[in-house]
């Protein structure tokens, strides 16, 4: 396992940031959430962003996800600069290129697990008769084949995160971005989720970027750790 901003490998680049910044004002104070970060991620890498609360981990992840735009600098994914994309193109990028998993699961309470997992496919205009079969297969793969018609409130936290992972992967994204995916789970359930993420990283070859404050967790699962403090890359 390595740490720092460079992977030490040759080959194509999946994601790169070049002196990317995200600054905003809170009253008279300028907050430098991300401050001049440059890094490169290779296809198929499993990377952790580590740092204390407020270090810029989630802000950087949101820039890579296309959920926020940089104040300056660039985020380049598969050769395309996200800042140059229109709102419509950015929405398509989030739908087809990126899958996201959050600490709070973000499942829609009124929908069944099947409906939650089908949702990205509906946005992608996948035919209805295909959606159900793909959703069943995805939920079976994360061990939820008997929970298809349940709603999120009827499930444990671990089951909800499994469903969220199935939804994130349903459109076969090139990037899986996970923001504290085990933060609301006990250690045993968190381990199960991490094993699933590692399995998908290895089986599907997707690039995985995980935000966490747990170094021991990162050391167990990821190939490279990137440390942030006060919005900047720091040594590991």
Can you describe this structure?
Helix 3 (113-123) runs parallel beside helix 5 (157-169) and helix 5 packs parallel to helix 6. The mean pLDDT is 91. The radius of gyration is 18 Å and the shape is globular. With 236 residues, it is an alpha/beta fold. 35% of the residues lie in helices and 28% in strands. It has helices spanning 57-65, 87-96, 113-123, 128-141, 157-169, 187-204, 215-221; strands at residues 2-3, 15-26, 29-41, 46-50, 72-77, 80-81, 98-102, 175-179, 207-212, 224-229, 232-234. The chain has seven helices and eleven strands.
Offer a few descriptive terms:
single chain; 236 residues; alpha/beta; Rossmann fold; seven-stranded mixed sheet; four-stranded antiparallel sheet; 11 strands; globular
SSE layout:
Elements: E1 2-3, E2 15-26, E3 29-41, E4 46-50, H1 57-65, E5 72-77, E6 80-81, H2 87-96, E7 98-102, H3 113-123, H4 128-141, H5 157-169, E8 175-179, H6 187-204, E9 207-212, H7 215-221, E10 224-229, E11 232-234
Parallel strand pairs: 1-10, 4-9, 4-10, 7-8, 8-9
Antiparallel strand pairs: 2-3, 2-5, 5-6, 10-11
Helix pairs in contact: 3-4, 3-5, 4-5, 5-6
Largest sheet: 7 strands, mixed
> What is the CATH homology-level superfamily?
P-loop containing nucleotide triphosphate hydrolases
Determine the strand fraction and express it as a percent band. 25-35%
Shape: globular
Q: Uncertain segments of ≥5 residues (pLDDT<50)?
A: none
CATH architecture: 3-Layer(aba) Sandwich
Q: For the CA atoms, what is the radius of gyration? A: 18 Å
- Count of the domains: 1
Average predicted local confidence, pLDDT: 91
Number of helices: 7
